[in-house]
Structure formats: C-alpha cells, structure tokens
C-alpha cells in the first residue's frame, strides 16, 4: 500500500474517531448499519453490545496504525483471522463489515472529506485487513475452538479465583499468549484470559480470573464456575514471549492477574539451560493482590537469573480481607515489598535502557507505566505489551 493511500485512510479515521466520543459514535453507527443492511450477521454477535469496549473497531484502529509495519501487522491479523473461525465467520461477512464501516465513516466524514479517492483508499485498506484474516483462517488446520472441562476452581480472594481446565485436545500456544474463552452461563460473550502456565501435552491450563465489578462475565467465572463445566477456548493470540536465544536482560512488570502471562513465560524459561537476567515487578492495589508471591519466590529461589520485587499501592489490606474467613495467600517475599504506584516505583530504579520490557495489566496501568519508563529513559521500541482494546 503506498504512502498516499495510508495517509488518506489515517486522516479520515482520525477526523472521525479522534474527537471526544468519536470512536464510540463510529462504532455505534457501524453496528447499526451492519445489522440493518445484513440482518443475518446479527446472530453472530452477543445480545448486549457494549460500544464502550468495542474490540472490532478497536482492532481496526490498531491495524491502521501499523499499515507500514507488515512484520507486526500481518501476524496480528493472521492470529485474529484464525481466532475468528470460532464465530463461524465466512468471507462474505468481511464484505459486509467493510461496507458497513465505510458507510459509517462516510456519514461522519461528510461530503467534503469523503472523495472517490478516499473511498478507494479505504477499499484497499480494508481488503488488506480482511484478506490477511481470511487467508490465515483458510490455511489453519487446528480446531476452530477447543472444548474444555473445568477441573478445579480455587477461590484465592473474594474477587479472584484460579480456574484449571483440561482441553479436549492439547493446544500449542507460546508462553505469554492469551486466548478467548466462553463459559456456559454467558453464551456468545467471549473474553480474553491469559494461561498462567506453559502449554503441556495434557492440555491443562490454569487461569487467574479477577471479578470486575459490574462485568458481564468475570463475576460469573470467579464465583459460579463448577467442576465439570464445559468451556470453549479460541486460538492463541498475542506476541509476548522470550525467544530461546534471547541475550538482552529483561524487565517484566505486572499488576493483578497480569502476572499470569509473565508467570507462564518464567516457568517456560526455567526449563531452559541459559537465560538472560530478569527483574520482575509484581504489583497490586493491596498486599493481598500479590496472591501468587509464593510461586514467584519459589521460581526466584530456584533460578538465580530471576529477581522478584513485590509492589503494592497501599500498605494495608482492605477491610474485607480481615473480615472474611476465606483462604489467605502467602505474602512473604524474598525481596522487600515496595509501596507506591508501580510505574513510579520501577522508574525510580533508573532508565532500564539495557532491558527488553514487557508490561501487563489494565490498559491504564500499561499506559501509565510505559509513560513513566519512557520519561526515565527507556526506549519505546524496547517496550512490549498486548493490544489495549
Ligand atoms: C489480552 C488480555 C488478556 C486478559 N487476561 C486476563 C486474565 O488472565 N485474567 C482476567 O481476570 N482478566 C483478563 N483480561 C480481562 C478480561 O478479558 C475481561 O475484560 C474482564 O474479565 C472483564 O470482563 P467482564 O465481562 O466481567 O466485564 P465487561 O462486561 O466486559 O465490562 C464491564 C465494565 O467493566 C470495565 N472493565 C472491563 N475490564 C476491566 C478491568 N480489568 N478493570 C476495570 N474495569 C474493567 C468495562 O470497561 C466495562 O465498563 C484480559 C484482557 C485482555 C485484553
Ligand atoms: C474486518 C476485520 C475484522 C477485525 C479487525 C475484527 C476484530 C475483532 C476483534 C479484535 C474482536 C474481539 C474478540 C476476538 O478477538 O474475537 C472481534 C470480535 C468479534 N468479531 Fe470481528 N473482526 C473483523 C471482522 C469480523 C467479521 C467479518 C465478523 C462476522 C460477522 C466478525 C464477528 C465478530 C464477532 C461476532 C465478535 C464478538 C463480538 C463481541 O464479543 O462483542 N468480525 N472482532
């Protein structure tokens, strides 16, 4: 795609989506056109459509930002295309999505901005995105989705459970990747979860799930998952991971259940003979949010290349931690616990200029931490995180 085509696409998208509430408006209009012009497509989507967290339009925006970086964009689209097989998506649906998105954009861009040249640029951009997804899906030989049985649900905190499942057939995912999951109580509401262990031949996966207040799915996962429930799991996604021959030292930063994909990578690295030095900062609001410290300390004790520093925003635990008689995680640690906002604490150690960095947590935590590190001297290109939509 030439630079003029890319510039035309970006300018229209920015003009429509960048202003306050623009992205949400675009998303709402896109779905209303899609479901009106192609009513058959409605059945593929969940009953409740929350435009605030629309990931389809979010992914298109993410892709548009990377049109000049095919080495990053194409693997991302290929993963997404393989994962979309779980919805039963057909190539003709991509035409419906592209046409509806174009109509929505045209409506907000207005006649002055929406020229024939702009329309053609969008045709080319959306054909690139759809083509990459369709061709990866067509080539894939693994299942469109895996079925799994719940083996165990362990309540760690009143708002956090560890759920272990066994897939009907093993899945080859790289430690650090995430998957989308559907539970029987919430049909068609797929949510991303990160395996906290490397892939194994038994197809066993451990998930750490936090209940988000007011959320549709996570409270049900955390509180009502029963042994024997059947879950569906989509194809692996994401590009976090440490290659076998990695030489550069690593800095890993996680908050809450964000520890899961980093823990999986550390466990996988522990099976190798040689590793670069890794400093892991694991954080949470309260000390009790550092629920996995015992495992992380065991890893650090057995592997001299690993240092684990716990960080909590507050010094004390919340009132309910003392009140409820539930199980209590082991919070003792090899390194002294630091108190403060995690990005600030990590940046106070220096520039980390010699490290490859991974950050995992909520979108706001990732953005703030990235900002703090860059202000301290870390190069943006050394920092990796999953897409924030
Ligand atoms: C790459 C990736 C990996 C993930 N891995 C895990 C994991 O291993 N374990 C895990 O527990 N979760 C993980 N999540 C988050 C998970 O996918 C869901 O977004 C989360 O469980 C909320 O789903 P819900 O249906 O309960 O809330 P929704 O119904 O989707 O959202 C309800 C409201 O809560 C807000 N909200 C959603 N998520 C959060 C949040 N984290 N903090 C604050 N507000 C929020 C929404 O904006 C919305 O307003 C991951 C997300 C991503 C993108
Ligand atoms: C044009 C390229 C497309 C992109 C970039 C895209 C991207 C995404 C992303 C990132 C998600 C979030 C969850 C996930 O990863 O599965 C999603 C969800 C979804 N997509 Fe797509 N998608 C595209 C095309 C399509 C098409 C053609 C269909 C067919 C109808 C479709 C149907 C769905 C459905 C049903 C969901 C779930 C919605 C939800 O959970 O709210 N997508 N899409």
TrEMBL record:
Residues 143-243 form the FAD-binding FR-type domain. It catalyses: 2 nitric oxide + NADPH + 2 O2 = 2 nitrate + NADP(+) + H(+); 2 nitric oxide + NADH + 2 O2 = 2 nitrate + NAD(+) + H(+). One of its GO terms (molecular function) is heme binding. The keyword Transport applies. It is an enzyme of class 1 (oxidoreductase). Its cofactor is FAD; heme b. Keywords: 2Fe-2S, Heme, Iron, Iron-sulfur, Metal-binding, NAD, NADP, Oxygen transport, Transport. The keyword NADP applies. Residues 1-138 form the Globin domain. Its EC number is 1.14.12.17. It comes from the Bacteria. In the C-terminal section; belongs to the flavoprotein pyridine nucleotide cytochrome reductase family. Belongs to the globin family. PANTHER family: NADH OXIDOREDUCTASE HCR, PROTEIN RFBI. This is nitric oxide dioxygenase. It comes from Nocardia camponoti.
